[in-house]
């Protein structure tokens, strides 16, 4: 039960109930939000960097990342069924272990949720600046932030309807890119050219290079876990959320692997004029200047759709932490009485996004990686903890689903974590230490648990 105040125990009237998030999302909407967060079209935007890092084994890197992510997605699904509330890895760890660990995982996850929208806005601004060099990039960044903030504050339903349109356009461009690559390959080598082991296996490429690529590729899957923050706005979340989480990972993974596979067939090798814009080089090669224009428009739409989902997720994570009074409840636990959205949190996320005016994409993304893999590892460990806690009860899990799969997921996530570049590990460790200091302050040197209420 929710702790009672001294006034309530004395018999005074209870305070009115605070506003709650509104349940409006079904499985299709949750799937679209997760896929929008992942921005499938961005597989092309980051292809050159991934191909270079993996020594031209991008398709295999995406496949390895997918295997690791699927194990973790299954764990998220189990926990979403057990704890159908907002908060994602933060809530799962707090309930499975203790509030201190929950806070630290929530703090680490903030790296992902806070800085991912910033990276999305930065990438979108970079593309637009390249297309319109006479317009300062800060104008594009501010425009992205203002538009996504307004849509998210007005309500998840409005953002959802907007996402549907953007996702249809985005998936259509991905499909067209795949078809054009296939047409290019068959025109040069016949239908048999579409069947090759080269994108998955190259004897001279060390596995460590492919794993380095997999660590990069795994960032593209982040949307599967982000939708768990929408649990309290989802209809029948105990059934809908586990299905959505696994389906998002599988659908996204299939898109990434197929896209990388066909691009590698059309452009063998990892040599590009500019790895950051490699997809434009391939797009012009397989589709000409007209397709390049369409592709650029699609990338911008993808960034906008992804930014809407990313900002919505960070707003709800802050809401969960504010409602538990880990962060100041008056601000972070606020729900707008009319729109039924965590409006202040969305505005805060937008304001923090303005830091993008002073950062570049590389610096921002280095923050994201550490928090994501740490949260994934924690979620798998939570399932293992629940497996042992539920032994002999009606909620007991199978050895495979409750122990072996999450253990495989945790090992894979740790492997991806240590495969990150040193800069990401150092920045992540610094952020983690700052969180530990803040936790020590609010708990009087860990002598008491962080404040929490029932959810």
TrEMBL record:
Gene3D superfamilies: Amino acid/polyamine transporter I (1.20.1740.10)
Compartments, as annotated in UniProt: Membrane
Taxonomic source organism: Paraburkholderia sediminicola
Membrane topology qualifier: Multi-pass membrane protein
UniProt-listed InterPro entries: AA-permease/SLC12A_dom (IPR004841), APC_superfamily (IPR050367)
Keyword set includes Transmembrane helix: yes
Protein name as annotated: Putrescine importer PuuP
GO biological process assignments: transmembrane transport
Amino acid permease/ SLC12A domain boundaries: 42-396
Bilayer-crossing regions: 25-47, 59-80, 101-123, 135-155, 162-186, 206-224, 244-263, 290-319, 339-359, 365-384, 396-418, 424-442
Annotated Gene Ontology cellular component terms: membrane
Keywords: Membrane, Transmembrane, Transmembrane helix
């Amino acid at each position: 039960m929710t702790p009672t105040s001294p006034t309530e125990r004395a018999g005074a009237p209870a305070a009115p109930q605070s506003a709650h998030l509104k349940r409006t999302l079904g499985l299709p909407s949750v799937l679209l939000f997760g896929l929008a967060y992942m921005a499938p079209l961005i597989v092309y935007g980051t292809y050159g960097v991934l191909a270079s890092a993996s020594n031209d084994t991008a398709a295999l890197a995406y496949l390895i990342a997918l295997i690791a992510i699927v194990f973790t997605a299954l764990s998220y699904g189990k926990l979403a069924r057990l704890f159908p509330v907002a908060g994602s890895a933060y809530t799962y760890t707090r309930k499975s272990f203790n509030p201190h660990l929950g806070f630290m995982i929530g703090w680490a996850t903030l790296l992902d949720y806070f800085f991912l929208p910033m990276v999305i806005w930065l990438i979108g601004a970079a593309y637009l600046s390249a297309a319109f060099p006479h317009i300062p990039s800060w104008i594009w960044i501010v425009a992205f932030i203002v538009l996504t903030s307004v849509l998210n504050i007005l309500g998840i339903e409005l953002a959802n309807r907007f996402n549907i349109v953007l996702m249809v356009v985005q998936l259509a461009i991905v499909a067209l890119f795949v078809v054009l690559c296939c047409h290019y390959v068959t025109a040069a080598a016949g239908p048999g050219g579409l069947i090759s082991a080269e994108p998955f296996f190259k004897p001279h490429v060390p596995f460590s290079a492919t794993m380095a690529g997999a660590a990069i590729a795994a960032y593209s899957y982040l949307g599967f876990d982000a939708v768990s923050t929408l649990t309290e706005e989802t209809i029948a979340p105990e059934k809908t959320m586990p299905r959505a989480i696994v389906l998002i990972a599988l659908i996204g993974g299939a898109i990434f692997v197929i896209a990388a596979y066909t691009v590698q067939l059309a452009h063998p090798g990892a040599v590009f004029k500019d790895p950051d814009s490699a997809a434009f080089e391939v797009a012009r090669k397989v589709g000409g200047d007209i397709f390049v224009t369409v592709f650029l428009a699609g990338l911008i739409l993808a960034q906008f759709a992804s930014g809407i989902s990313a900002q919505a997720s960070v707003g709800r994570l802050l809401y969960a932490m504010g409602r538990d009074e880990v962060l100041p409840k008056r601000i972070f636990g606020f729900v707008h009485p009319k729109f039924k959205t965590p409006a202040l949190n969305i505005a805060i996320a937008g304001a923090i996004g303005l830091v993008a005016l002073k950062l570049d994409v590389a610096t921002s993304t280095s923050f994201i990686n550490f928090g994501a893999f740490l949260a994934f590892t924690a979620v798998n460990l939570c399932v293992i903890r629940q497996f042992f806690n539920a032994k002999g009860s009606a909620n007991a899990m199978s050895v495979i689903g409750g122990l072996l799969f999450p253990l495989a997921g945790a090992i894979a996530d740790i492997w991806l974590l240590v495969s990150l570049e040193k800069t990401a590990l150092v920045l992540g460790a610094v952020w983690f230490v700052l969180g530990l200091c803040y936790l020590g302050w609010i708990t009087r040197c860990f002598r008491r648990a962080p404040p929490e209420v029932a959810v």
